[in-house]
Amino acid sequence: MSLDPWLLERLVCPVTRTPLRYDEAAEELVSEAAGLAYPIRDGVPVMLVEEARAL
């Protein structure tokens, strides 16, 4: 499943406000700056720090 490029351009890490990298294989949005990976569930990015996985 792919993420809408328009959406990806607008999403930023809620901690650092930096752009995110889309990891299609893991279905996650990765914030290199924060060291966190935010899950994508049923096509919806879950941008909650408490739901993120530490890298």
Explain what this protein looks like in three dimensions.
The protein has one domain: N-terminal domain of TfIIb. It is built from 1 helix and 5 strands. The protein has one helix at 5-10; strands spanning 21-23, 28-31, 36-41, 44-45, 53-54. Strands 1, 2, 3, 4 and 5 form a 5-stranded antiparallel beta sheet that branches. The mean pLDDT is 95.
Structure characteristics:
single chain, 55 residues, mainly beta, N-terminal domain of TfIIb, 5-stranded antiparallel sheet, 1 helix, 5 strands
Element string (H = helix, E = strand): HEEEEE
- Describe the main β-sheet briefly: 5 strands, antiparallel
Low-confidence stretches: none
Straight-line distance between termini: 22 Å
Q: What is Rg?
A: 10 Å
Q: Which architecture would the CATH scheme give at its second level?
A: Single Sheet
CATH class: Mainly Beta
Q: Give the quaternary arrangement of the chains.
A: single chain
Structural category: mainly beta
Give the integer mean of the pLDDT values.
Answer: 95
Tally of helical segments: 1
Look up the CATH topology.
N-terminal domain of TfIIb
Strand content: 25-35%
Task: Please count the beta strands (DSSP E, at least 2 residues each).
Answer: 5
What sort of overall outline do the alpha carbons produce when their principal axes are compared? globular
Proportion in helices: 10-25%
Number of folding domains?
A: 1
